[in-house]
Design a protein that fits this description.
- The chain is mainly β.
- It has one domain: Beta Barrel (Porin), CATH 2.40.160.40.
- The chain is 10% helix and 61% strand.
- A twelve-stranded antiparallel barrel has the order 1-2-3-4-6-7-8-9-10-11-12-13.
Length: 206
């Protein structure tokens, strides 16, 4: 009787151990809070808040004032990442837009790093279902190099329609720093041109 009981207990322990080993771990979600603070000559100061949730497989993003003033958008897509000498990820996304601009969009966020160099790309094409004039392609590209583990410098190129209701393609230098769970950067767009403005970005890992 005692032998049978010991055998049953051993079998039960083995089955429980097997369940633990074969049960895949669910990827944990990492929330982020972001803000783009614009300092412009005509529209003055305004904010673009962004909330993100992401894990190794999926990316969710909620934006306001991003595609247009008084406009919210929700984006989602899978994450494809890789490691190696050149590591990075690509996230294709679909989105819905509601507010001054109403419609849908397709977009992509991608990043690649090699040594001290890093390139980040954020593109989207938004279709305004109420007016073809609202259909627009937006692009943001950063190329940076790390001076230290926490400090980087580089250049940014942006194509946007938010500023003074016209298409704007501008570029300029940037400097960024990371401290604990906070990443901040200052961008100077259009230096030397008739339309210069500043963008201060803040990314907080919650």
């Amino acid at each position: 009787m005692l032998t049978s009981y010991i055998v049953l207990m051993c079998c039960s322990a083995l089955l429980e151990a097997q369940d633990v080993q074969t049960t895949p771990e669910k990827p944990s979600w990492e929330p982020h809070a972001m803000a783009y603070a614009y300092f412009t000559p005509d529209d003055g100061f305004f904010m673009i808040p962004v909330a993100m949730m992401e894990n190794d497989r999926w990316h969710l993003e909620l934006r306001y004032n991003y595609e247009d003033f008084k406009t919210a958008s929700l984006w989602a897509g899978p994450v494809f990442s890789w490691e190696g000498a050149v590591g990075g990820y690509v996230t294709p996304m679909l989105g819905v837009v509601a507010g001054n601009t109403m419609g849908w969009g397709v977009g992509v966020e991608a990043e690649a790093s090699y040594g001290i160099l890093n390139v980040y790309i954020e593109n989207e094409f938004v279709v305004d279902v109420r007016s073809s004039d609202g259909t627009f392609f937006y692009s943001w590209t950063e190329l940076t190099g790390s001076i230290t583990d926490n400090l980087r410098v580089g250049a940014v190129l942006q194509r946007t329609r938010v500023l003074h209701d016209v298409e704007d393609v501008s570029a300029g230098p940037l400097v960024g720093a990371t401290l604990y769970m906070i990443d901040a950067a200052v961008h100077w767009l259009g230096p030397g041109s008739d339309y210069q403005y500043w963008i201060v970005t803040l990314d907080i890992a919650l």
